[in-house]
Amino acid sequence: xxxxxxxxxxxxxxxxYPAMKGSKNTPRRGxxxxxxxxxxxxxxxxxxxxxxxxxxxxxxxxxxxxxxMGYLASADLLPVLGxxxxxxxxxxxxxxxxxxxxxxxxxxxxxxLVFAVLLALFVGAPFAVTAYRGVTLPMLSDVSTDTxxxxxLTLAAEKRTVDMNEIEPFTLERRxxxxxAYPAATGRRYEAPIxxxxxxxxxxxxxxxxxxxxxxxxxxxxxxxxxxxxxxxPILGMPADIAVRLIDEGTSTYVxxxxxxxxxxxxFGDNAARIEAFLAELDVEVAYLxxxxxxxxxxxxxxxxxxxxxxxxxxxxPAEPLDRSEDPPD
Length: 330
Known about the structure:
- By secondary structure, the protein is an alpha+beta fold.
- It has 7 helices and 10 strands.
- Strands 5, 6, 7, 8, 9 and 10 form a 6-stranded antiparallel sheet that branches. It has a two-stranded antiparallel sheet with strand order 1-2. A two-stranded antiparallel ribbon has the order 3-4.
- A hairpin with a 6-residue loop joins strand 8 and strand 9.
- Helix 1 packs antiparallel against helix 2.
- The longest helix is centred in the first third of the chain and has 32 residues.
């Protein structure tokens, strides 16, 4: 409402708030004015927040599925994830702006705003967890239970390209960082033959759907065996190279494990978590194996034979006395 030059109250033209169809406050025909406008409108911030959240979710799902199915390379997935994170953050910022408008002016679209915020938080949760791990955990891309003599990733080193992480020896700094951040990533010693432990290791690798890329046949008298495999992260399927080494110690078997991610200089704790989970499950399986099928102890060696006595001549039998009863008389 405004004052006309004559001092009378004039109607406000419906320029910024056009009347909606079917409203009881529709402008009078012919004059282009309306008395009041009470119809609540949907803020543009609500609309754009919902659009951005939906677009980020669709892009995240499409990129993840395409990478899982092999249509999108791992190196190309990283820029896609960056775009998804940026769009998700922008959606939340726009939602904050929409909430401020709601608080000040009111309006419609509260359900759409809640949906946009929840969807953006759902998509952004993995990025938030990754960012937290990146800040709190050391920057490592290769973790091993034995940092002095780690299991060899021979086949993985041959497949690494220029855009992947290079497999390097463990430096003193890396050893200190790993021991401080992941003290539970240690080797295991099992009171079982190396053949039985190898069978359990291969069964666990198959159960976790890791692909064995190393040798699967070993000589029966081998005292050290290394199994190489390729693992993938649970959500996006980012690849990592695995090596499990078994050392025969006679009556026991010692197991070491190594996990190395191919991309990014920071594994965000995935390698250590993978090693700890695998070895924890291996502990249970080997313990169960020792209960169900105990290892038979080796037969004791036969007692030494007593030294042979020299052969003695047989004793002479005494001569039988002659029977002279039948001799003729003299």
